[in-house]
Design brief:
The protein is of the alpha+beta class. It folds into 5 domains: about 1-45, no CATH class; about 80-165; about 170-255 and about 275-380 and about 460-520, Rossmann fold (3-Layer(aba) Sandwich); about 585-685, no CATH class; about 710-800, no CATH class. The protein is built from 27 helices and 30 strands. Helix 12 packs parallel to helix 13 (about 345-355). The protein is globular. The chain binds S-adenosylmethionine. S-adenosylmethionine binds near residues 193, 249 and 521. Keywords: Methyltransferase, Nucleus, RNA-binding, S-adenosyl-L-methionine, Transferase, tRNA processing, tRNA-binding. Belongs to the class I-like SAM-binding methyltransferase superfamily. RsmB/NOP family. Pfam families: Methyltr_RsmB-F (PF01189), Pre-PUA_NSUN2 (PF25376), PUA_NSUN2 (PF25378).
């Protein structure tokens, strides 16, 4: 596929997300004499999986013992086994786990091409409830070996619909140490592409049994385009308990009640918000890092690796972590993690946090948690490498480098007074090759000062051994670093300063752009998914980005215009003569949207059109007990042209209300669960209710609707999935035929009947019910579910019924010989 047929941004994301194992070497001949036809003749070579600077650096840091070095290096050069997680809040998670445990484990064992004794796929022993799996087939084998195709197809399909998430094993670790409970408010500070956010949401939903949990997650990322990936990833979770924001994590806003501004808001001033300040029970601080823990998956890092990458991120990492701790409730927990092995991004950051926070923060000893996860204690000593020099203490840092190499990078954190001691350190010019090349390298080791063994590293007196470092050769994984903090009391006053002030005060905060560019921000071990379906809320904002202060490239306009276009195609099967074009249709561009003080971001509006809400409630017979009114929002302030209505949980509602009263500090890219979509087709506007239930919203509202919902027998249900649209006379079950034709014109819900439930008058659903949104037309019923969802559901039904001898459910994609012909 190679991203073919997708928009420019999608192709770019595809390139960034793919397994970038191969590069084409460019010979001088080739560049001089190349003709278009020559491209076919060139050969492709694997990336060189070595870098002397890397070896020297990590040998010196002693992240593994000398005896282990060869094994460490051997593993870090091997391709990484594929890993994935079953989404525990999926309706089908038990079936999927059983399928893996019973079917795939056995059938794939026979395919293990290495002839080794190892299992072909196995659950990760440290992940609870057999929900995470590792395959001993590399990602490339999975893609290329035809006999593994069925398994690969299974992974792809279940991933697409959100039942599993492909995620590097070690990247699954940090959320497990957060101890998230369903009532927690959680902040994921650097969340894109969102694998860990997905895990956090699953934890919030644990044991919710179809009810919305009282907790919520705010997933934040600085990068707008990566926010799009995050929205796409988490959309598969169908959650009403998530807000996606777009801030610098180190400046994440303090959201608190500002009574002076309440007059600006849509909230009646008599309403007292439930919370007066946005603080979190849990914070995940999975910071941007140099990413060398992902070398097995992203071998191009071998080429770009240098010690400066880690040094350049250290201060930003501290700032983000400190902001996280400031936003954490007393008694709350924060996990700091990186996919880097570098102590300057890990132990040095943790040590500086502890120093700044004094006794208000505890570095937790979590050695008894997840005992089967093999990890190593954090280091207590390390050195800093800068411009070809080894530095053991801040006093070794030449004056001219002190704005870059900070005292916080060293184990003691001591900022020595300037002394003449550092005058013996030679300047870079003296070590460099004369042409200004400042690449970190090995060229300067002749000098006694630069010699790696001549300096004794400082030793930290902090309990840094409580940190965890996961290394590749311990359990055939990537590398990761995790530290867990507990907030014992409020931070010292000096650390509570407003983030923007903190930024000014911390002169080391500015990150040289070239260093930031080197950072492998997306290399946190997770598969980046190409957004397929087009609906992300951020997209409406991005559509106007050319007129905005937010810097966005043209490509994002490209993708987002695609999105809006595709949305209209999906929903509006026929152009409606009665619907007046909105301003965006007339001009091709909608007016600039403003969300509070954020230009270019669609506003978050509580949907209060009582007439429409009443009609929706009446049409679907929504039970009074369901908290409906007050839980609906839109992203369009023109109430006459609202296309989508989103549902928000109580917890999200509280945050939005606080945000409105507090002067809209949050820049919200996406919020809530898309529950209704406007139908603008001819049939659509003839319906008594022009809002159809969206696929994402259906599971949530399903138990609360009493009208426009009918049971179908397995055979009619399956036919609907297979043929997408069926005329009333073609339904097999006469009772279904009659009930379907008696429904009101418009959206309806068809529920797969369980034994004996077909003929009951009222439809009772629970978390195990399988249902699809449909459209009841004048002569037929059509499904309103994406092709991929239909395929996945058919496949699941064939697996579910395979042991029951039910021949009425054919394998997905196979015709069962029925006479019904596909209706276009
Ligand atoms: C290591 S990745 C996060 C991976 C993510 N937690 C996951 O599990 O999918 C780091 C992320 O930080 C984001 N980022 C970089 N600088 C940031 C900043 N100052 N504030 C917030 N996010 C930032 C990057 O865009 C990137 O998506």
């Amino acid at each position: 596929m190679g991203g073919k047929g997708r928009s420019r941004t999608q192709r770019k994301h595809f390139r960034q997300g793919r397994e970038n194992v191969w590069k084409r070497p460019k010979t001088s001949d080739e560049s001089a004499n190349a003709t278009p036809g020559d491209a076919n003749k060139t050969h492709w070579e694997p990336f060189a999986t070595q870098n002397p600077a890397f070896d020297e650096y990590y040998k010196e840091q002693e992240i593994v013992s000398t005896e282990e070095w060869d094994s460490f290096i051997e593993y870090i050069r091997k391709p990484l086994p594929a890993a994935f997680r079953i989404n525990s809040s999926s309706q089908f998670y038990v079936d999927i786990r059983t399928q893996l445990e019973n079917d795939f484990s056995k059938s794939l064992q026979a395919e293990d091409t290495n002839g080794c004794e190892v299992e072909a796929i196995k659950p990760l022993p440290w992940y609870p409830d057999n929900l995470a799996w590792q395959s001993n087939f590399s990602r490339n084998q999975l893609r290329k070996n035809q006999t593994l195709e069925k398994f690969h197809e299974f992974l792809k399909l279940e991933n697409e619909v959100g039942n599993i998430t492909r995620q590097e094993a070690v990247s699954m670790v940090p959320p497990l140490f957060l101890d998230v409970r369903p009532d927690h408010f959680v902040l994921d500070m650097c969340a894109a592409p969102g694998s860990k956010t997905f895990q956090l949401l699953e934890m919030i939903y644990k044991l919710s049994e179809g009810n919305l949990p009282s907790g919520m997650v705010i997933a934040n990322d600085l990068d707008v385009q990566r926010c799009n990936l995050l929205i796409h990833q988490t959309k598969r979770m169908c959650t009403a308990n998530l807000i996606v924001t777009n801030h610098e994590a180190q400046n994440f806003p303090s959201c608190h009640l500002d009574r002076n501004r309440s007059g600006d808001s849509q909230i009646e001033t008599t309403n007292e918000p439930d919370i007066s300040q946005l603080l979190f029970d849990r914070v995940l601080c999975d910071v941007p890092c140099s990413g060398d823990g992902t070398l097995r998956k992203a071998p191009d890092i071998w080429r770009t690796w240098n010690a400066g990458n880690g040094n350049g991120l250290h201060c930003l990492q501290i700032q983000i972590a400190m902001r996280g701790l400031a936003l954490l409730k007393v008694g709350g927990r924060m996990v700091y993690s990186t996919c880097s092995m570098n102590p300057v991004e890990n132990e040095a950051v943790v040590a500086e946090i502890l120093r700044r926070c004094g006794g208000t923060i505890e570095l937790m000893d979590v050695s008894t948690l997840l005992p089967q996860l093999v990890r190593r204690p954090g280091l207590k000593k390390w050195k800093i490498r800068d411009k070809g020099l080894w530095l053991a203490s801040y006093k070794d840092v030449p004056n001219y480098r002190r704005s870059v190499i900070t005292s916080s990078m060293f184990p003691s954190g001591k900022s020595y007074e300037e002394t003449s001691e550092n005058s013996h350190i030679k300047s870079t010019e003296e070590f460099s090759n004369g042409n200004g090349d400042t690449e970190d390298g090995l060229q300067s080791t002749d000098d006694p000062v630069a010699s790696t063994k001549s300096l004794e590293a400082e030793v930290s007196d902090l309990p840094l051994d409580r940190c965890m470092r996961i290394v590749p050769h311990d359990q055939n994984s990537g590398a990761f670093f995790v530290a867990v903090f507990h907030k014992l009391s409020s931070l010292p006053v000096s650390e509570k300063k407003h983030p923007s002030l903190a930024k000014k005060m911390d002169s080391s905060s500015s990150q040289p752009q070239e260093l930031m560019n080197e950072v492998k921000e997306d290399s946190n071990g997770d598969d980046i998914v190409i957004p397929g379906e087009k609906d992300d809320q951020i997209s409406e904002a991005n559509l106007h980005a050319d007129t905005l202060e937010n810097v966005m490239d043209e490509a994002s306009l490209d993708v987002n215009q695609d999105k809006i276009h595709k949305e209209n195609e999906e929903v509006d099967t026929e152009p409606s003569p009665n619907v007046k074009p909105g301003p965006e249709m007339v001009t091709g561009k909608r007016k600039l949207q403003i969300q509070g003080r954020w230009r270019g971001v669609d506003p978050v509006i509580f949907y209060k059109d009582d007439a429409v809400v009443g009609r929706i409630m009446e049409f679907y017979g929504i039970k009074e007990a369901f908290p409906f009114k007050g839980h609906l929002i839109t992203r369009n302030d023109d109430m006459n042209h609202v296309k989508r209505i989103y549902y928000i949980s109580d917890s999200v509602k509280k945050v939005l209300e606080l945000n409105l009263l507090g002067g809209q500090q949050l820049k919200i890219a996406s919020v809530g669960l898309k529950m209704f979509e406007r139908q603008t087709s001819k049939d659509g506007i003839s319906s008594n209710c022009i809002f159809r239930i969206s696929s994402e919203g259906l599971p949530l509202i399903l138990p609360h609707i009493t009208k426009q919902i009918i049971y179908a027998s397995a055979v009619d249900f399956k036919h609907l999935l297979q043929y997408k649209s069926i005329k009333f006379p073609d339904f097999v079950d006469p009772e279904f035929r009659e009930k379907a034709s008696n429904l009101m014109l418009g959206c309806c819900v068809v529920v797969l009947s369980k034994e004996g439930s077909v003929s009951s008058d009222s439809v009772q659903t629970d978390t195990t019910s399988i249902a699809i949104g449909c459209w009841k037309g004048r002569s037929n019923v059509s499904v309103m579910v994406t092709a991929i969802d239909c395929q996945q559901l058919l496949q699941r039904l064939s697996v579910l019924h395979s042991g029951e001898g039910d021949s009425s459910i054919p394998e997905a994609g196979k015709d069962d010989g029925s006479e019904i012909k596909e209706v276009n």
